[in-house]
Amino acid sequence: MKKVIILIIASVLLMFLGIAFGSVSISFSLILKSIIYGVKMEISKLLFVFGVEPLKELDTTYFTIIWEIRLPRVILAYLVGLSLASAGVATQALFKNPLGDPYILGISGGAAVGASIAALFFPRYMSIFALLFALLSVFLVYNISKVDGHIPVDTLLLAGIAFGFFAHALTSYLLYVGKERIHNAIFWLMGTFNGATWSDAKLVLFSSLLGFSFLMYKWRELNLLLFGEEAIALGLDLSFYRKAIIFVVSLLTAFAVSTSGIIGFVGLISPHAMRLIFGPNHRKLLPASALFGGSLMVFADLLARILLKPSEIPVGIITALFGAPFFIYLLMKRKRGELYA
Amino acid sequence: MPKQEKQLEVNLRFSYGEREVLKNVSFFAQKRELLAIIGPNGAGKSTLLKCMVGILKGKGYVRYNGLDLTKLPAKERAKYITYVPQNSLPEFAFTIEEFVELGTYATGGDVKKALKLVGMWERRREFITNLSGGEYQLVLIARALAQGSEIILLDEPTSHLDVNHALQIMELLTRLKDEKIIVAVMHDLNLALQYSDKLMLLHNGSIEWSGEVFELKEDILERVYGVKAKISTIDGKPILLAALE
């Protein structure tokens, strides 16, 4: 419990740092004022039906920067991190393997193809194309793997990897022929929270709450999934839960990717790191990973914004650049039970 | 008049594509009679257990007290029958208590009682990844006991164990057999002869022979395993000796 509280405090602290840092420095009191006013404004909008006069947006630069730019960005980053980490936990349970990654199902590959096509032909609809192609890819990979109505996880893994290569080739081709026209897509492919809006944040809030609550409610089933077909003898409807988990992982990942691009390693590292501290029991592992994933993403975004100030690095570069060595460090630590209390 | 004993009544067939792995395997089992399934590698012993517990979908029935368990959804079936898989190294560092708790998923059974039965309650906070093969086998059995079902299937519960743990497991099963229907695939013929009440010899997916332990004859073993062996008796229990020429 104490460790979870530390994670929550870290989350809040990092989010605050994420709001405080930026090209324009704004004082602590103005930040608080803006947030409080913004919240009041949203509440007054909701109470409009009861005849309450809705508050107008403050016409000051600092309010716009805090409320319209930094806050949605930080919240989106947190929710995307939370989504990817939760999806990572579930994927690792599905594959019975702590090295599973939510992108393995072909979601990121499909989203990349969709975004590239959109960048070439319908530049305004990149998110929607990414989302549709991500879901379409999972659907394809899922059906390729299906045998007699069951999903053998090793086939699913291989189908996902093969599809990933195929999608990568398609994306590369589109980038090659598209040249300048596809510049937006390149930034998106590397993952970024630049230009995040409240509607992005609300969309991911919806998908992450739905997905995370389902997984949390099914923590026992996630534990049992780790034992594969053995779990049938313990009473698990294995076939149903494999499908349900694939569906939820797709939902969480596709919405995260469609708003902010392909940000690697958070879905892989967060559950892995938290397993070393909290153990494999999903009752603790899932919420811890979700909190950790959110914090990690906000932190990575912060680095993306300040490392090459005033210009910005795509956050996907940061997560991979720091994530890969960190992951190797975790692998070397991976002697059984080493970090357990 | 004594109450009719609840019986397990099995009739199963199973094939992987064209290859028939189980050909009409049909038998009974009941409490107080530990049934050991023996037979050479590839005879279909593990497949039989997996079909019985629903991991593999065979043709036929597994009736308990008249109720066909193969027709039930997994969660319902788990209330009647459970399975202790072949001992392989655990990959995930659950504590013993968390691990045994997995057995209560379908039935909400008693973890403490199960762990006390196998003598591991005091060590419940240890990680299963730190246990020896024998200790892990005890924990696997505790998980099945926590499930509370009356039928327990075990796949080679003593394989890879030292003699001390192998005997401990067999003694435990002997203590349990008055309350549970126990069916165990046994690799070690001598342990099977010593501890089981009934034997069933599988060969190429069919029952080659079955009967009371003391009825097993040398020529049957020679026919199935292709080796000469001598069955002797010590303290009234049959024992298998290699018959060297």
Descriptive overview:
The complex is a heterodimer of chains A (341) and B (245). With 341 residues, chain A is an all-alpha fold. Chain A has a single domain (2-335), classed as ABC transporter involved in vitamin B12 uptake, BtuC. Helix content of chain A is 73%, strand content 0%. Chain A has 14 helices and no strands. In chain A, helix 4 packs parallel to helix 6, helix 4 (107-121) runs antiparallel to helix 7 and helix 5 runs antiparallel to helix 6. The longest helix of chain A has 34 residues, at 61-94. Chain A is globular, with a radius of gyration of 21 Å. Mean pLDDT of chain A is 89; it is low at 336-341. Chain B has 245 residues and is of the alpha/beta class. Chain B is built from eight helices and twelve strands. Chain B has helices at 45-53, 74-77, 96-101, 111-117, 133-147, 163-176, 189-195, 218-225; strands spanning 7-16, 19-30, 35-38, 59-64, 67-68, 81-84, 151-155, 181-185, 198-203, 206-212, 229-234, 237-242. In chain B, the strands form three sheets. In chain B, strands 6-7-8-3-9-10 form a six-stranded mixed sheet, sandwiched between helices. A four-stranded antiparallel sheet of chain B has the order 2-1-4-5, covered by helices on one side. In chain B, strand 9 and strand 10 (206-212) form a beta hairpin. Chain B is globular and about 50 Å long. In chain B, 44% of the residues are buried. The mean pLDDT of chain B is 92.
Range of strand content of chain B:
25-35%
The structural class of chain A is: mainly alpha
Low-confidence stretches of chain B: none
- Helix percent of chain B reads 25-40%
Q: Cα-atom Rg of chain A, whole angstroms?
A: 21 Å
Proportion in helices of chain A: over 70%
Order of helices and strands of chain B: EEEHEEHEHHHEHEHEEHEE
Given the structure, what is the number of helices of chain A? 14
Q: Which CATH architecture of chain A is right?
A: Orthogonal Bundle
Low-confidence stretches of chain A: 336-341
Could you say which overall geometry of chain B the principal axes of the C-alpha atoms support?
globular
Order of helices and strands of chain A: HHHHHHHHHHHHHH
**Going by CATH, what is the homologous superfamily of chain A?**
ABC transporter involved in vitamin B12 uptake, BtuC
Radius of gyration of chain B, CA atoms, in whole angstroms: 18 Å
